[in-house]
Design brief:
single chain, mainly alpha, three-stranded mixed sheet, 6 helices, flat
Length: 177
């Protein structure tokens, strides 16, 4: 999308944001010219931002604390160990890439962030074929369960990790081997 098309889209949206019946929203008024000038500035800023993001390959070290604050880092439940800039950068990139994902790889990578090795993840799906349609699901007996087999020693607080980073509708059974 070029600058002209982007400016036209911004102008269209800005005109729609005007209060209904108060201003003339046609394209031939002085107000429309003012809106188009602002839309052109927005489009230029948007285009410049895209160009900058294409040029920047890595997060500048100077902006690392700001990025960490925006993404909720340092992670809760971590040990009080000082991390190098490189380790902080890797954690930040992992958090940016892994937003709202729940699968085996995510659980494994999440536990690695806390220094825990996942040996096996066993999941159980509850089934009750003979029950009537009105019987409750997700009870204590039929709860969706996941068994995490972890390699000893586990130095991090696994309950804190489960509480903060994994869904609450799943029951987690922990086995340390």
């Amino acid at each position: 999308m070029n600058l002209q098309e982007s400016a036209n889209l911004y102008a269209l949206v800005l005109r729609q944001l005007l209060p209904a019946g108060v201003y003339d929203t046609s394209a031939k008024t002085t107000l429309a010219k003012d809106i188009y000038a602002h839309a052109l500035a927005f489009a230029q800023a948007d285009l410049d931002a895209k160009r900058l993001l294409n040029v920047i390959t890595d997060i500048p070290v100077e902006l690392l604390p700001e990025y960490e604050r925006d993404y909720g880092l340092p992670l809760k439940c971590t040990l009080n160990a000082a991390k190098t800039v490189q380790e902080r950068m890797q954690t930040l990139k992992w958090v940016i890439d892994k937003k709202n994902v729940l699968n085996r790889l995510y659980v494994k990578e999440l536990l690695v962030q806390f220094g825990i090795t996942l040996l096996e993840l066993v999941n159980y799906k509850p089934m009750q074929c003979t029950a009537p349609c009105t019987s409750p699901v997700n009870t204590d007996v039929l709860r969706y369960k996941v068994k995490l087999k972890l390699k000893a020693p586990v130095n991090a607080d696994i309950n804190c990790i489960i509480e903060n980073y994994l869904p609450a509708y799943i029951r987690y059974d922990i086995e340390v081997i």
